[in-house]
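Support case: N-(iminomethyl)-L-glutamic acid complex. Customer-provided input:
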Amino acid sequence: MSLLIRNARILTLGQGTLARRGKDLRDLGLIPAGEVLVTDGKIAAVGAKVEAPADAEIIDAQGRVVMPGFVDCHTHACWAGDRLDEWELKLRGVPYLEILKKGGGIHATVKAVREATQKQLAASLRDRLGSMLREGTTTVEVKSGYGLNTEAEMKMLRAIRRAAAEWPGTVVATALLGHAFEGDLEDYARMVVKDMLPEVAKEFPDIAVDAFCETGAWTVEACVRLFEKARKHHPIRVHADQFNSLGMIPEAVRMHARSVDHLEASTKKDLILLAQSPTCGVILPCTGLHTDQRFTRSRLFIEQGGALALATNCNPGTSPSHSIPFAIALAVRFCGLSPAEAIIAATANAATVLGLNDRGNIAPGQRADLILLHHKDERALAYELGGNPVDVVIVGGKVVP
Ligand code: NIG
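Agent response - structure generated as follows:
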């Protein structure tokens, strides 16, 4: 069965599957008034006018924007419990890293996750995935990292897989094996490399491996030890320079990491190095808004040719938001992105961070993960604060009821 969307302002986001940089990061591949034909879950044709079978189901976009579904490439959306008490402390000025040092923060969520069953974790993730889908996210990355022992990390990864199976969109799990530590970091990191990583790899052979390089979390040395082992079989990603610049970027670039995420405290030199490398930079402006009003110097990164992606970082500690439209609105206000750059960073470029080259643009053969906005001008996506700009969501060629 085919689906024809007509009378649409189409953002194709161009051809090709490489991350967009420079002027390509602003090129929406606009067809001001056009049609998209979807057959068997894929884009069959796109253009000003396309040939469609007589029995194709029809959506009349009435001049509104049709674009690829959002790809949220950095979330910690699988968690249990809440962090409302800690948030009150933060409102009174207690810094995030101090709460972490005192055994709160990530450790509070670890406790709640260990107490939850796999079924409970999957159910709460499933609820969050539902909210994401309603706001246009059709592909989402979800990290583990609140287990801090092999059993609980495996429970999280299985919960993510279970929730993914009940959701129409695509979930990409990431093994965040170096999020924090218990006891001595050296011993803990040794255990992760020797026991946890092989156990995870057995059941999730292609999964990306991630770590949080930060004062009070993992050191550069511990991250490098984990990544040198992991990168033989897994893509690697790293949280770096969220609060302190510890020197992780040159190592991540050397080890061909898929992405370096956060970058709020990066030095100019490191941002330029990253921008001129194949590794993507992922910005997380909801974190700046919620945590400490610090944002990545994204303009510098873009002007140096960087491949920039944008994500929500949905998590209970630093970013309680599941909304890519909201992240786009913040990226434009606080990180200096244009609306077009923010749109591409949250679609085409986010897909490359996840190693997915079958989505993020509207071209023949690509997955038909599409959204129809309420608006006739895509800049409204970035302009509106806190509403839902998405009217219709299509996943794999099917309209989500
Ligand atoms: O990306 N910084 C490390 N991880 C998350 C926060 C996780 C948490 O506080 O629970 C982040 O901001």
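Residues 76, 105-106, 109, 212, 239, 242, 287, 313, 315-318 surround N-(iminomethyl)-L-glutamic acid (CB under 6 Å).

Case will auto-close in a few days if no follow-up is received.
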